[in-house]
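Entry 14. Structure prediction run on the chain below.
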Amino acid sequence: MFEYTGDGIAFNLFGIGVHWYGILIVIGMLLGVWLSSREMEHKGMNGEVISDLALWVLPLGVVGARLWYVLFEPQRFHSLFDIINLRSGGLAIQGGVMMGILVSWIYLKRHQLPFLCVADCIIPFLPLAQSIGRWGNFFNNEAYGYAADVPWAVLINGKPHHPTFFYESAGDFLIFLFLWYYLRKRARTDGQTTMLYFVLYGLLRYVVEGFRTDSLYFGSLRVAQLLALAGLLLGLIGFAVLSKKGKKG
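Output returned:
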């Protein structure tokens, strides 16, 4: 069984606690940027585009993830400081992804770069970063599921629960491996790999979210599941349309 009984702090820097959650997110981001740059170079493009894009996408992606969480959990925040104090926790990855896509589209359009081609160089490594970042939930003792007496349970206050953070981390890593293989060996049209991310991650998130006890809700509906289904549908339609093009560009 999984269990973490610490306070989530890896070390102190100048008297300020540095949390494992933040460390893992940064590691995932940096690794994603590096691998995406290499993928751009593999396609014969300038890998520095990814570094320049990351300067906009990464911070604004965090803003998007925070604002999406605040939108559906407003009762947790009583001041502007509460909202900007990320050390208190509360990021929604789907909000970050949506903001990242919007910022990337604007940036690439302004620089006259092919959005779908560049997106394909980035998207396989997004689930890799997500897979790493999910372990931050373990150190925060959050994002767990319903009570479950299974050998791989996570112990919360001494009681076993579904380790939904681990389910998603493992699933994200498998998605990363598949998308990277697909991009290198199977993709025939720009954008197919990106659309498959929406399909696969949408399916994974919909299933895993059903086990969680800390979902964001819109009425009686789980927001993450609604977005997962929307992403899955968008991915299927987009993949079908792009496949009919039958050529790159």
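The CA atoms of residues 148 and 247 lie 48 Å apart.
Filed with the rest of this week's runs.
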